[in-house]
Structures are given as C-alpha cells and as structure tokens.
Backbone:
C-alpha cells in the first residue's frame, strides 16, 4: 500500500464489525489525505496492517467503492481516484439548483417535531465538527440535517435524485470542511437556515441554502486547484 496505513501499534482493530471498522479507518485516512490520490490499496497489506483476514478488507473496499471514495479498476485493484474540480463544480451546482426547490415545498409543512429533530442533529453535528478524528461522520450528519428540512416536500423522486447527488458529493463535503476549515461558517449558515425555516421565511431560507451550497463548492474547488498548483510547482 502506498503510504503506510497506520502504525502497527495503532492499527489493530477490535473485533466488532470488522468490515465497518476497516472501512471507517480507511475512509478517514482518505478524507484526511493521509492516503493520497492515486494510491493503490492492496488487500494483503491492509489485512496485515490491521491484523484481520482479507475477507473484511475486501468487503470494506467494496463499501468504499459504493461510496465513491475509491475505484476498483480491472487489473489494478482498488485505487484512490483523483478529485476533479469539474466534478465538484457539477455536483454542487446540481445541489444548489435542486435543494432550494425542495426546501421551498417543505417549509410550509414542517412540523415542530421536524424542526426539533433538525436542531438536535445540528447540535450533534457541531460537536462532531470540533473533533477531526470524527471526520467520517461529517457528511452523514450534514445530509441528515438537510434532509430533515426537506422531508415534508412530498417529492420522492426529487429526494431520490438529491440523495444520490449527496452520496456522490459526501466525500467532497467532508473534504471541503476538513481542507478549508469552513466549520464556523457552515455552523452559522446551518443555524440561520434552520431559524428561517422556523420563522417560515421561505424565500430567504431558499436563497441562503443555494448560496450556502454554492460557496461550499467554490471553496473546495479553489483549495484543490491551489493544492494541485503547489504540487506541480514542487515537482519541477
């Protein structure tokens, strides 16, 4: 495996759900950039490093492949694909177009329990953002918060498309927060969106949501382009 996955002393995994435990460790290292773009993930090396058999490693790699974090390529095995700034721009543009439309339909029908649930998720999300060792939870909680606010739209096909786009962009969402240190702004905007929903200020909530998503995509695209430029300059 192209860099070391972890030190031997830290890499032994408790025998819980081995597949999820291996997936969690690899996911976090990919998001943090400890396993860089282009790295090949070798099952035997991972199994030896984590002191498990190859079966949970194989299943973990399949799980990460389904999440879009890695790609399983014929004759090459599992690799960490390069992030494309164009992919990021497209995914976040789709989100910025679709999600405000669903929120607009949902806000008038949101119940007190929906708003309370969104607030509870947001509290947990804020706590998790303070802990970089919990980076794997960031995308999941981000989706739970947003989808709770969209839940009364009664647009299952819209929601299926949005869920699929969010699954594809979850890696980027976590990276955007981690690489750009955008946590404070994300927290402020999430709280403001929730407050606008509570006040039934539909146009303002939808406008802020669209801006929130667009800014997140732009900030991630910019930091990745900067990292690529720095990497190219250092390799000359």
Residues:
């Amino acid at each position: 495996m192209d860099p070391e996955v972890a030190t031997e002393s830290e890499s032994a995994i408790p025998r819980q759900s081995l597949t999820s435990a291996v997936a969690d460790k690899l996911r976090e290292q990919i998001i943090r950039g400890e396993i860089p773009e282009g790295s090949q993930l070798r099952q035997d090396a991972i199994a030896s490093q984590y002191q498990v058999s190859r079966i949970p490693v194989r299943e973990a790699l399949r799980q990460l492949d389904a999440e879009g974090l890695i790609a399983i390529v014929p004759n090459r095995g599992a690799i960490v694909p390069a992030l494309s700034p164009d992919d990021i721009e497209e995914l976040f543009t789709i989100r910025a177009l679709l999600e405000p439309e669903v929120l607009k339909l949902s806000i008038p029908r949101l119940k007190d329990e929906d708003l309370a649930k969104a607030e509870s998720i947001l509290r947990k999300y804020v706590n998790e953002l303070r802990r970089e060792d919990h980076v794997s939870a960031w995308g999941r909680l981000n989706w739970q918060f947003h989808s709770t606010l969209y839940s009364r739209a009664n647009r299952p096909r819209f929601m299926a498309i949005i869920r699929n786009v969010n699954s594809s962009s979850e890696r980027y969402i976590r990276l955007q927060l981690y690489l750009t240190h955008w946590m404070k702004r994300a927290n402020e905007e999430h709280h403001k969106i929730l407050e606008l929903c509570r006040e039934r200020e539909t146009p303002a909530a939808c406008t802020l949501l669209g801006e929130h998503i667009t800014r997140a995509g732009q900030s991630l695209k910019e930091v990745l382009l900067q990292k690529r430029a720095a990497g190219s300059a250092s390799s000359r």
Remarks:
- The longest strand covers residues 71-73.
- The beta strands are 40-41, 71-73, 77-79.
